Amino acid sequence: MSRSPFVGALSGLVLLAAGCGDGNGFTPAPEAPLGQGLSWEEFRAQVYQEPDTGIFIVDGDVPVLSEALLREFYENSVRSGQLIVHNVGGQDAKWSDTQKRSLTYCVSTAFGTRHARVVEAMATATAAWEAAADVKFLHVSAEDSACDALNDRVVFDVRPVNVFGQYLARAFFPSHARPDRSLLFDNSAFGPTGTWTLAGITRHELGHALGFRHEHTRTQVTGCFEDNNWRALTTYDAASVMHYPSCSGTQTGDLVLTQKDIDGARALYGFVYVTETLSGSTWEPGIVHYSPFSVAPGSTFDVEMTGTGDPDLYVRFGASPTLEAWDCRPYEYSAQERCTLVVPAGVNTAYVMVPGYGADPFFHLNIRYVPFSGFTTGPRWAQWSTYVAQGTYRDFGTYDVKPGTQFRVDMRGLGEETDDPDLYVRFGAPPTFDTYDCRPYIVGPHEVCDLTVPAGQSKVYVRVHGYTGAMIDVDIDYTAP
Ligand SMILES: [Zn+2]
User: Fold this and answer.
1) CATH architecture assignment, domain 274-480
2) Cα 395 to averaged position of ligand 1 atoms, centre (Å)
3) 267 CA to middle of ligand 1, Å?
4) CATH 3.40.390.10 occupies which residues in the chain?
5) What DSSP line would sit under 285-346, residue for residue?
6) Helix, strand, or coil here: 179?
7) Is 210 strand, coil or helix?
8) pLDDT band at 15 (very low <50, low <70, confident <90, very high)
9) Ligand 1 center to residue 185 CA distance, Å?
10) Residues 6 or more apart from 413 whose CB is under 8 A from it?
11) Ligand 1 centroid to residue 231 C-alpha, Å
């Protein structure tokens, strides 16, 4: 496919001008716009108008009833688009809702000693797009030994070619038929490729495989205009993974997805939701705050609480909730509460708080959301403030953790220095008096457990026993998977 060759150059990095030219002989008109996306006239000329009704059809099958409304659609959706999707005959070249979650591929054993490297680069690159939007790639390794363009047991094949550096790699668009759906890597892709990794090059190629065009074809000022057969999904992004740096691009390191790439992929394929669970018990006047969830504007932030007693659920965007300020507080007389909210534009954090009411409440939160930038991995915290009565114990949560990271619990007393709560932390199961991975057992209310999560462990339990009654703050810092 010569339309979007990823052209390597003598230096291994400088992309040849030929790689930016259009491969189908289309010559851009000299008056083609320099701004973002299509001009109104170009757009208007492309839109189909039903001869009988005069209705305009956009996005394949969406009717727009008048020219005034069409102009409005253009201003809102076309003029200031971003990442761009390839168009064939005015239709988006994209995978269907069924296909997008089953993009199977094989990696040819003809790569020889490079086979493992390609498999790893594919895994890294597919993970980046899968974290961005609702698409799923699947390596069918059983087909690796029969991995050619005719193998129809996979959606596409990944094979080596030798084009002597004409391009590093090249892919295909979703509109292509099976024999044309190959992702080919030239010898030159294996280095040296400057700041680009094989995974970076693969991220760019998989962008094409998902239907994305070169970002630099949006405007003539890049010097790399190709054609106008595309539809904008976001505003112009000079740093896009789909933008050649040599075409006035600004991404100088490896080829990685930008926030606009993520937004554009979501605009085409939808959000990918992740689920996180948190639990514990907060007796009155106890309260727990969780670190903000990174959330994508326009997605749904859904927190479902179950449990016993009467804990209350508070959710707020952009700042921690207080007892007086929140965006959602169901305030039911039980633990069954739910907040389902659409994240407002311009907002990318959501905060959750659970104060306990009455005695003996236990809560479990099931939180479903779309991380703003795709991945959830990162530091998280929980801040508890509550009372532990003498002779009782309280659970300060169960946490999903990542092996090799630190898990730190800092307990401080809010009452007398003679208060004596005891902290217990255990991996894999709730601690008991006899079984734990950390128990400082210090006289007084200040105790710390600072642990490295061992290999094979994915959950940590925190419990405090009241040797005497004590009002305490418990700060927990950890890394979520
Ligand atoms: Zn390309």
Assistant:
1) Sandwich (2.60)
2) 53
3) 20
4) 1-38+79-271
5) T-EEEEEEEE--TTSEEEEEEEEES----EEEESS---SS--SB----SSS-EEEEEEPPTT
6) helix
7) coil
8) very low
9) 12
10) 419, 421, 444, 445, 446, 470, 471, 472
11) 16
Mean pLDDT across the stretch 124-133? 95
Using CA atoms, how far apart are residues 225 and 214, in angstroms rounded to an integer? Answer: 9
Strand order in the sheet with 56-58: 48-49, 56-58, 62-64
Q: Which of 172-186, 214-228, 288-302 has the lowest mean pLDDT?
A: 214-228
Q: Checking DSSP bridges between strand 137-139 and strand 103-107, what pairing results, if any?
A: parallel
Contact 120, 68 (CB under 8 A): no
Q: What CATH number has the domain spanning 1-38+79-271?
A: 3.40.390.10
441: alpha, beta or left? (left if phi > 0; alpha if psi -120 to 50) = left
Mean pLDDT of all residues belonging to the chain: 84
Distance from Cα 203 to the centre of ligand 1, integer Å = 10
CA atoms of 249 and 238, how far apart (whole Å)? 5
CA of 23 to the centre of ligand 1 (A): 12
| DSSP bridge partners of 275 | 368
Contact 292, 346 (CB under 8 A): no
DSSP letter at 23 equals S
Please give the model's pTM, rounded to 2 decimal places: 0.71
CATH 2.60.120.380 domain locations along the chain: 274-480
pLDDT of residue 80: 41
Residue 252 Cα, ligand 1 centroid: separation in angstroms? 16
67: helix, coil or strand? helix
Q: Over 70: is that where the pLDDT of 58 sits?
A: no
Going from the Cα of 138 to the center of ligand 1, the distance in angstroms, rounded, reads 22
> Could you tell me the strand order of the sheet in which 84-88 lies?
91-92, 84-88, 230-232
Q: Specify the amino acid at residue 399.
A: Y
